[in-house]
Amino acid sequence: MQERPFDLLNKAIGQNVLIRLKNGLEIRGKVTSFDVHMNIVMDNAEELDGGNLKAKLGTILLRGGNILFISPV
Amino acid sequence: MQERPFDLLNKAIGQNVLIRLKNGLEIRGKVTSFDVHMNIVMDNAEELDGGNLKAKLGTILLRGGNILFISPV
Amino acid sequence: MQERPFDLLNKAIGQNVLIRLKNGLEIRGKVTSFDVHMNIVMDNAEELDGGNLKAKLGTILLRGGNILFISPV
Amino acid sequence: MQERPFDLLNKAIGQNVLIRLKNGLEIRGKVTSFDVHMNIVMDNAEELDGGNLKAKLGTILLRGGNILFISPV
Amino acid sequence: MQERPFDLLNKAIGQNVLIRLKNGLEIRGKVTSFDVHMNIVMDNAEELDGGNLKAKLGTILLRGGNILFISPV
Amino acid sequence: MQERPFDLLNKAIGQNVLIRLKNGLEIRGKVTSFDVHMNIVMDNAEELDGGNLKAKLGTILLRGGNILFISPV
Amino acid sequence: MQERPFDLLNKAIGQNVLIRLKNGLEIRGKVTSFDVHMNIVMDNAEELDGGNLKAKLGTILLRGGNILFISPV
Fold it and tell me: Which residues pair with B34 in a beta bridge?
């Protein structure tokens, strides 16, 4: 069966990802769940600015519509 | 059964959350209800600016489309 | 039965609310009706700027898509 | 039967309304028809800037998605 | 039967209209067809800037989502 | 049968068109296919700035949502 | 059977493409999968600025809504 983009999210469960948002912000953390809207819950989420830690966010539920791309790290 | 992002909101009922909005604003308060659009009613809501209290908002119904992320606090 | 966000609007019928719009504008007035899109009709609506009265708008039909949050006052 | 926001538009047929758009522009004119998207046809429409007449537009079909609020005048 | 906003477009077939776009641009031309999304094909379309001719566009298919209002001329 | 806006795209297959995008950019090229979202594949696509060639893009798949208007050339 | 825009993506599987985003950013990489929303997974993705390598992104899942156009390279 052909791969589909959401397969990347399935494999990312329990793994760290880096998410670039439409507003330029970057968030890094461990994916614990996601849905069809690409809403994603992350643990130990951190906000990055130019690659540097800007704020520890803890657990967050991120709305999918804000996402530019997601990258496993 | 696998966790889903809205489970985080279910568990947040009666708890305090911090919500970062798309426009950069932050709102903190106690979740009393939510729906599938992520519209959220909060009690004792406070508007924060750079982590500092900017305004007490009381009870609010926040439209989900404005949300960047939600974090239990 | 669990509360839902629109219950707040139901209870607000005949009451005054303060509405913060996405563009920063605030509108205060008495809710007379609403629908599933959060379109709201208000009587004695007033436009506020920094909490000060900017303009009396009378009766208005506000499109829900412009709303950031609604707060009973 | 409970009132609904579109009832305001029904009553506005043949009457003058003032429409504030999302871009800040104001348009005044007589409503002749509307649909579920809040697309509105107005006769003798005028574009206002700070309450002053900026341009006579005649008959226009305004797309509902541009509307902030509508007020009977 | 009550008039509906799209009746204005039906009557505009073969006639000149002025279209104000969300970005402030104005386009004038003869309507040859339209659909439910307000996508419109115009012949002899001209781009106007402050009422002055800026460019001759010929035949164009304009996406409805860009429209602020349409006015028969 | 009445003409519809997408008929213009059907006739444009194999022909050159000029596409003005919402961001002001212009793209010229030969249409090879399109779909109901106005997604368009073009061959020999060129990016224009003020009518001058800015970049040769080759074959592109353009997302329809970015389009302001399409004009046969 | 007539070609459709998504056929270009089907042929691009395993091939390099250049993607121009709405925010002006360019991303180059090898397509491994896509879906009906034009969400695309790319391997060896690189962020380009004015044609120059700005950052190596590795594997990414790009949300389709951010795309201006896609070009095979």
Answer: B40
**Which residues, in sequence order, are CB contacts of B73 under 8 Å at separation 6+?**
A58, B16, B17, B18, B28
CA–CA distance, B65 with E10 (Å, rounded to integer):
35
Provide the 8-state DSSP code for A50.
T
* Structural contact between residues A69 and A20, judged by C-beta atoms closer than 8 angstroms: yes
Complex ipTM: 0.95
CATH T-level assignment (fold) for domain F5-72: SH3 type barrels. (2.30.30)
Establish whether chain E is in contact with chain A, requiring a minimum of 3 CB pairs below 8 angstroms: no
Residue C34 confidence (pLDDT): 97
The encoded tokens of residue B14 equal 């009666």
Q: What residues in D contact C57, CB-CB < 8 Å?
A: 69, 71
B73 vs chain A: nearest CA distance in angstroms? 9
pLDDT tens digits, one per residue of B3-49: 899 999 999 999 999 999 999 999 999 999 999 999 999 999 999 98
Instruction: Name the 3-class secondary structure at B1.
Output: coil
Compute the distance between CA of residue E64 and CA of residue F11 in angstroms, rounded to an integer.
Answer: 20
Query: Which residues in chain F are contacts of E66 at CB distance < 8 A?
Result: 22, 68-69
